[in-house]
Design goal:
The protein is an alpha/beta fold and 462 residues long. 44% of the residues lie in helices and 15% in strands. It starts with a helix and ends with a helix.
Length: 462
């Protein structure tokens, strides 16, 4: 807090004396679902237990303010004031500076397209890019490139990535993330269209270092990329950001880059604390890189925030004045990963011992086995009700529901043993933090609405 007050005093006190420098490059980082408790949890998660103090993190160093996140209601009633936003409405607020309703992708409440920051940057001849861990046509990145009334119209949004142009130019020169199944379909092969338009295409993360020129499209997974906790690759987001910087900084007129740590949100929806902390670690590494990059160049503004809070995370539960980050560290796979193995028939104790270095009670092992039986029975029963028993998509969806039943039980056990609390498997309406470094950072100090972030970025691009 002292650092924030000092920063505010410095910014406002020196504003009359120092001419403002407009940034040549702008990087917007979004930690999807990263409410304030996530950064607190991460600080404790990374704490060196051998020292008396709790060490600060990159989030503490870059913190400058807070932002409100409410949306303009739901798709059915644009004025019902739910106070709790979804990712599409929140991303639209950041990308356009305009409030909209939940599930809308860069449209206003009257379903009219709104100009996005990436579109505006392209109109100013800046090079543009996005780096995400979800599919690139997911709600957040989509709200910077495309326009749609419903965030889950993934195929239509993927089409829009190719069809939407600014003065004949594609909106994004660089796209890295997942989403193969939406861009390579029976009815349309958008990847092939991008290739014919001059884009260099890469379909595996192992090819990242091979990307050496723009325009480029990298789709590294069928949907979203795997969780960091389950991946053999360390700090993928940081590596993708570093590659993006080497490609974009060649632009003579500057660039706009969107970075999303997408999977913090997915871990939050799953109430999986170890999964969330590993995603936070990946984001922290990327922010360390960007913070140093902005300090060194002095022509690049980095603004980071969250779109909303997910899961209602709390440190401590059940009246206990404790939280156990050291136990969180002893969990080395996501609950989803463990649940899939259990569903496939693996020995329950073996699965636990391979992924969790914490004791488990016999009745808890029995509980996991019983939930597996329930999940299998549910899937079998629902399969029998299918009109088409060979419908692969429907079967896969049912099996996914079965895995989720087991994963929910496992996350309950892990939350109990680490004393991690959750109030929801959805979003909650808290404010989020704002972080900044570089020329123009002072515009994001103090409290603001999420639309104010978008509005200020428009001004700085101009």
């Amino acid at each position: 807090m002292k650092k924030l007050i000092a920063a505010l005093a410095l910014a406002f006190g020196s504003a009359q004396c120092v001419a403002e420098q407009a940034p040549k490059n702008i990087i917007l980082v979004i930690g999807d679902g990263m409410g304030p408790v996530y950064t607190t949890a991460y600080r404790n998660f990374k704490d060196d237990r051998n020292t008396p103090q709790i060490e600060n993190t990159i989030f503490d160093e870059m913190l400058v303010g807070m932002a409100s996140t409410y949306s303009y209601g739901t798709q059915k009633d644009h004025t019902d004031n739910t106070y709790v936003t979804d990712s599409a409405a929140a991303a639209t607020a950041l990308s356009t500076g305009v409030k909209t309703y939940n599930q809308a992708v860069a449209l206003n409440v009257e379903d009219k397209p709104l100009q996005t920051l990436m579109e505006y940057a392209k109109s100013k001849d800046k090079t543009t890019g996005l780096v995400v861990l979800s599919q690139i046509n997911h709600a957040t990145p989509a709200s910077f490139v495309a326009h749609n009334t419903y965030r889950y119209n993934y195929n239509q949004i993927a089409d829009n990535f190719f069809d939407n142009r600014v003065a004949g130019k594609f909106v994004a020169d660089l796209m890295l993330g997942g989403g193969q199944k939406y861009f390579i379909r029976e009815d349309r092969n958008i990847v092939e269209q991008f290739k014919q338009a001059g884009y260099h295409y890469y379909d595996n993360y192992s090819q990242l270092n091979s990307i050496d020129k723009l325009p480029a499209l990298g789709l590294f997974a069928k949907k979203g990329m795997s969780y960091a906790i389950d991946s053999n690759e360390k700090y993928r987001l940081r590596a993708m950001v570093e590659k993006a910087l080497t490609l974009l900084e060649q632009s003579k007129k500057g660039y706009f880059l969107l970075v999303e740590a997408s999977l913090i949100d997915w871990c939050g929806h799953a109430n999986d604390i170890a999964c969330a902390m590993n995603e936070m670690d990946d984001l922290a590494q990327a922010l360390e890189l960007l913070n140093q990059y902005a300090k060194k160049r002095q022509d690049t503004l980095v603004v980071a925030t969250a779109d909303h809070n997910t899961g209602g995370l709390s440190l401590g539960r059940d009246g206990e004045y404790r939280w156990y980050p050291e136990k969180v560290k002893q969990i080395t796979n996501s609950a989803e990963y463990m649940a899939q193995q259990v569903m496939d028939g693996a020995h329950v104790l073996k699965v636990w011992m391979n992924s969790v270095s914490l004791p488990i009670k016999p009745d808890q092992l029995t509980g996991i086995a019983e939930v597996r039986q329930q999940a299998r029975a549910y899937v079998k029963e629902q399969k029998a009700k299918l009109d088409d028993p060979l419908n692969a998509k429907a079967i896969a969806s049912l099996e996914s529901e079965g895995v989720e039943m087991i994963a929910n039980y496992i996350t309950g056990l892990l939350s109990e043993v680490t004393l991690t609390g959750w109030t929801s498997t959805g979003h909650s309406g808290s404010d989020v933090q704002v972080f900044a470094q570089g020329p123009g950072a002072q515009h994001f100090f103090g409290h603001q609405d999420n639309t104010d972030i978008g509005k200020q970025l428009f001004k700085l691009i101009k």
